[in-house]
Every structure is written in structure tokens, then in C-alpha cells.
Amino acid sequence: MDYQDFAQEVFVRLFSWLPALHNPKAFPGYFRRVALSVVADTFRRSKPQIQPHDPALLDVLEAADAAILDKIFVASYLSKLQPKEREVLTLEYMSGYSPAEIAPLVGLKTAGGVRMIKSRAMKRLHEIVEAERTLLGRQMEHR
Question: Which of 15, 78, 83, 88 is deepest in the core (most CB within 10 A)?
Fold first, then answer.
């Protein structure tokens, strides 16, 4: 299955179940679950002897999750932060800068200010992810 076939399968499944999604804020988590399901099904079709809890399948899902889906969702979650929070996290985690290097780039005087913004941003991200997980769990229970 090539990339276009994979994307088509994800969107077909996504849109067939989309009417059941009552809260738009749960969409990123829902999308992630659908995409991982397609990865698993594609892998199983290519190797019919694979069982659902086979370590090979779990390795494929882990690699797909880490390599593809996380990149998609990092951007969607970062977009929910304040601009300075987003900039600090991007500079540290994606560009590899230290807090001392980031401070002058974002208009702060000290690395402590950068760490405070980073802490606040990480707390907000945690709250966002937990809220989506809770919403998605409730919606899956109603099926």
C-alpha cells in the first residue's frame, strides 16, 4: 500500500465515523486512533500470520506512531499555545537551543524566564491532551 492508498483508507474510515464525534476538540486524538488502526490493518494484511499482539505488529505501530503521527499532532497541539510558549518549545525541542540561548531570541532577560514559560506550556499541553483523551474515551463508550 502506498502513501496515497494509506491516506485514502484513513480518510474513508475517518469520515464514516465522523458523525459520531460530538466534540470537535477530540478530533486530533480520534484521527490518531484511526490512523494507527489503518497501519495495523495494513501490516496484518501484508503478513496474515501476524496476530493482534504480535511483537512485530507492535513494533510497526510504535514506529508509525513515533515517526509519522507525532509530527502531525505536535504541530496541532503547539498551535493551541500562546505564541511565546510555542516559540520556546519549538526552539528547545525542535532546534536544540538551551534556555540561555532562547532567552534573547524571545525577548527575555534570563534562562529562568524561559524555563517558566516552558513549564507553563508543558502544563497546558498536558491539560489539552488529557481533555481530548477523556472526550474520546466517553465517545468510544457510547458506541
Answer: 88
Classify 1 as helix, strand or coil.
coil
Architecture of domain 82-143: Orthogonal Bundle (1.10)
Distance separating alpha carbons of residues 31 and 64, to the nearest angstrom: 14
Helices 3-17 and 27-46 cross at an angle (nearest 10°) of 130
CA dist., res. 102 & res. 96, Å (int): 10
- The residues, any chain, with a CB within 8 Å of residue 112's CB and separated by 6 or more, are 99
Q: At what angle do helices 111-141 and 27-46 cross, to 10 degrees?
A: 70
The pLDDT tens digits of the residues spanning 28-76 come to 777 777 777 777 777 667 665 555 555 665 665 666 555 555 666 676 7
CB 3 within 8 A of CB 39: no
Residue 138 neighbours by CB under 8 Å, 6+ apart? none
| Mean pLDDT across 127-137 | 76
Q: Where are the domains of the chain?
A: 1-79, 82-143
- Single-letter code of the amino acid located at 115: R
